[in-house]
Amino acid sequence: MRCMLCESLSFMHICSSCQETFLSPSLYKRRLSNNIEVISFYKYNDIKELLHTKHTDIGYYIYSILARNSLQKFAMNFEYEHNISSIAVDDTVTSGYSHTAILNRSLKSKCIRPSFNKLRAKNTVSYSGKSKEYRITNPRDFYIKYFKCKQVILVDDIITTGSTLMEAVNTMELNKKQVLFCLTLADASIV
């Protein structure tokens, strides 16, 4: 096969050289209005085309590569005094896989235990390309399925306005869970 970025022959969808050149993560931080920190690894515009593969067959491989290069490295260096859970934002399976579950799975480490199928949206509305007003008037209406751990990390692919993560944090807090911080692949506010 050929690398999606440089078109050279490769055993992977994105060759090692391009992963090193174009997919080396950086840390970008911002805070939600409730003061919860969101850590992202890429500028949205730098990986936009790759993120848009999420509802295609090839998206599984692209998201696995992105997760391995960013979230997995983060998890291996993350230390905490006890085990915590990572929870994907609405890891419902579409197109044969869940892109947020791929990200969440990559966080498995000595103190992070990924939990799956725990935070789901009742509303399946798509926010892609929608305004902040649209997002506010059409909430995801999250609910939680029982899990033991009290402290969590929330995981999503993109942060734009922050409304999805805010709603997810509020749902967690209403269910007596403490969100330590959120992780996303990309932040759309960074230029």
Q: What this model shows, in words?
A:
This protein is an alpha/beta fold and 191 residues long. The protein has a single domain (25-187), classed as Rossmann fold. The protein is 30% helix and 24% strand. It contains 7 helices and 8 strands; from the N terminus they run H-E-E-H-H-H-E-H-E-E-H-E-E-H-E. A hairpin with a 5-residue loop joins strand 1 and strand 2. Helix 3 (59-69) packs parallel to helix 5 (99-105). 33% of the residues are buried. The model has no long low-confidence stretch (mean pLDDT 93).
Distance between the termini: 32 Å
Average predicted confidence as pLDDT: 93
What is the makeup of the main sheet?
6 strands, mixed
CATH architecture annotation name = 3-Layer(aba) Sandwich
* Name of the level-1 CATH class: Alpha Beta
The neighbouring-strand order within the major sheet is: 1-2-8-7-3-4
Binned, the helix content reads: 25-40%
| Gross geometry | globular
Number of domains: 1
> How many individual helices?
7
Question: Oligomerization state of this entry?
Answer: single chain
Protein topology:
Blueprint: H1 16-22, E1 28-31, E2 37-43, H2 44-51, H3 59-69, H4 71-77, E3 84-88, H5 99-105, E4 112-115, E5 119-121, H6 132-137, E6 142-144, E7 151-159, H7 163-174, E8 178-187
Parallel strand pairs: 2-8, 3-4, 3-7, 7-8
Antiparallel strand pairs: 1-2, 5-6
